[in-house]
């Protein structure tokens, strides 16, 4: 299924008049404050977030899985789904593949399909947290950190294979997330596990094409519940440094213990030129749980404030690979992704409104109250008309969720694909 331009325009018609009133009012008041509105809209239009290939079906938990039906059953259909989201939001111009869940059969056909939908191939993700069919070795006790050389070797080879697949598609980075760790005290020697991981990562690093980067993700717990080898940003940073200048840390919002100051982590990594990628989600308790911005939108704004500061002041840091990393059980996955994209753009727009010069002056004067006022003035601005204008001018929907529903997308997908399809992923 593909959404035609004129259908989006029809869906926009009803709300055009009120949108115009809102954007006129907002532009006027922002311009009066000295904000370059067109520049912000352009930045919003340029900000593209990758959709992970494993988030297009129902997520499920270990207790059960409830499909929304009409799920994509192959990579082509997954890319079509990203195309649907992109045509409405104009923000999802990339897809991130997880191997082996989504190995292309016909590379040219896949590339052509993505190209026609204006979708790029972002980072490719390796998977050494599950055993694959017919694999010689098992990852039950770890992969790159495993005590057995032949298990480590198999995991290294898999990552090199993933690089080859990504290279054929035009990806430029490999994301490594390891489930390695231990469930009980004494199970692992911490030092040996870290040393093995470092050596394995160095082997993978050697296989990176010159214009590629390696993104090393960290996470404190799950699936191991006593220790995780790459548990925090410090460990990931240490490993990235050990590998070389093409290796970076990747921050996933759901991979922190409660109350961690993620904005500070982001800021310091960018100062050191080592923040390479970012995974968006939100959570109350655990990992990958909830729609971006559904629980802690102010925290997301503070994180974006540091990202914007870093993008403007840290030329030593590369462009980031942005990706949504969440999968759910109770929402239509496409609607959920649309909501996430909206929350990301909203936090970004608000962060772009922070008066950086005034903030610097207030900081220099130790005017703590003023500092807070400046941040919250930006945060409290209703930026939704800016987002709508950014989308509208690119041919997207004024309200992607309303358009998705009025165009009856899910039912069309169910008619095309049936009720029994199941997307690969977690
Ligand atoms: C992990 C991590 C990775 C993602 C997998 C599916 O928790 O966030 O980025 O690839 O989940
Ligand atoms: Mn992640
Ligand atoms: Mn995760």
**How many individual β-strands?**
11
Please state how the strands of the largest beta sheet are arranged side by side: 4-5-7-9-10-11
| Binned strand content | 5-15%
What small molecules does the structure contain? beta-L-rhamnopyranose, manganese (II) ion
**Radius of gyration from CA coordinates:** 22 Å
- Please give the share of residues in helix: 40-55%
Measured between the Cα atoms of the first and last residue, the distance is 24 Å
Oligomer: single chain
Based on secondary structure, the structural category is alpha/beta
Task: Catalogue the unreliable spans.
Answer: none
**Mean model confidence by pLDDT:** 96
Shape designation: globular
Q: Biggest β-sheet, characterized?
A: 6 strands, parallel
Detailed description of the structure:
The structure is a single chain. The chain has 426 residues and is an alpha/beta fold. It contains 15 helices and 11 strands. It has helices at residues 5-32, 37-46, 75-89, 107-116, 149-169, 190-206, 233-243, 262-271, 297-313, 333-353, 356-364, 368-380, 384-393, 400-406, 409-417; strands spanning 50-52, 94-96, 120-121, 124-125, 173-176, 181-182, 213-217, 227-228, 247-252, 275-280, 321-324. Strands 4-5-7-9-10-11 form a 6-stranded parallel β-sheet. Strand 4, helix 5 (149-169) and strand 5 (173-176) form a beta-alpha-beta unit. Helix 5 runs parallel beside helix 6 and helix 8 packs parallel to helix 9. The longest helix has 28 residues, at 5-32. The chain is globular. The model has no long low-confidence stretch (mean pLDDT 96). Beta-L-rhamnopyranose binds at residues 98, 125, 177, 217, 219, 252, 279, 287-288, 325, 426.
């Amino acid at each position: 299924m593909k959404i035609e331009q004129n259908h989006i325009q029809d869906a926009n018609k009803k709300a055009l008049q009120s949108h115009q009133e809102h954007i006129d009012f907002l532009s006027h008041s922002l311009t009066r404050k000295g904000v370059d509105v067109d520049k912000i809209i352009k930045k919003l239009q340029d900000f593209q977030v990758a959709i992970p290939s494993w988030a297009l079906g129902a997520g499920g938990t270990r207790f059960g899985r409830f499909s929304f039906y009409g799920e994509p059953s192959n990579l082509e259909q997954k890319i079509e789904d990203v195309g649907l989201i992109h045509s409405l939001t104009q923000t999802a111009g990339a897809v991130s593949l997880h191997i082996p869940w989504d190995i292309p059969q016909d590379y040219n056909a896949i590339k052509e399909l993505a190209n026609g939908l204006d979708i790029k191939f972002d980072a490719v993700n390796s998977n050494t947290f599950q055993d694959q069919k017919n694999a010689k070795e098992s990852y039950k006790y770890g992969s790159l950190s495993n005590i057995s050389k032949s298990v480590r070797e198999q995991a290294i080879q898999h990552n090199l294979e993933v690089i080859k697949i990504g290279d054929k598609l035009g990806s430029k980075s490999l994301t490594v997330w390891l489930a390695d760790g231990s469930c009980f005290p004494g199970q692992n020697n911490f030092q040996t596990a870290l040393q093995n991981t470092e050596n394995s990562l160095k082997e993978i690093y050697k296989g990176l094409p010159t214009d590629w980067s390696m993104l090393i993700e960290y996470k404190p717990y799950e699936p191991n519940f006593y220790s995780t080898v790459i548990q925090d940003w410090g460990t990931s940073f240490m490993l990235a440094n050990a590998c070389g200048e093409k290796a970076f840390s990747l921050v996933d919002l759901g991979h922190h213990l409660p109350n961690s100051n993620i904005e500070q982590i982001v800021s310091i990594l960018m100062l050191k030129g080592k923040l390479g990628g970012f995974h968006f989600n939100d959570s109350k308790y655990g990992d990958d749980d909830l729609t971006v911005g559904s629980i802690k939108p102010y925290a997301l704004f503070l994180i974006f404030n540091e990202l914007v500061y870093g993008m403007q002041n840290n030329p030593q840091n590369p462009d980031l690979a942005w990706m949504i990393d969440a999968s759910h059980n109770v929402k239509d996955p496409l609607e959920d992704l649309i909501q996430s994209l909206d929350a990301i753009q909203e936090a970004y727009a608000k962060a772009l409104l922070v008066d950086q010069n005034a903030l610097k002056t207030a900081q220099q004067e130790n005017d703590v109250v003023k500092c807070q006022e400046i941040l919250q003035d930006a945060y409290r601005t209703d930026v939704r008309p800016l987002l709508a204008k950014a989308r509208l001018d690119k041919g997207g929907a004024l309200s992607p969720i309303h358009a998705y529903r009025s165009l009856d997308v899910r039912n069309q997908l169910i008619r095309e694909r049936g009720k029994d399809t199941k997307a690969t992923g977690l």
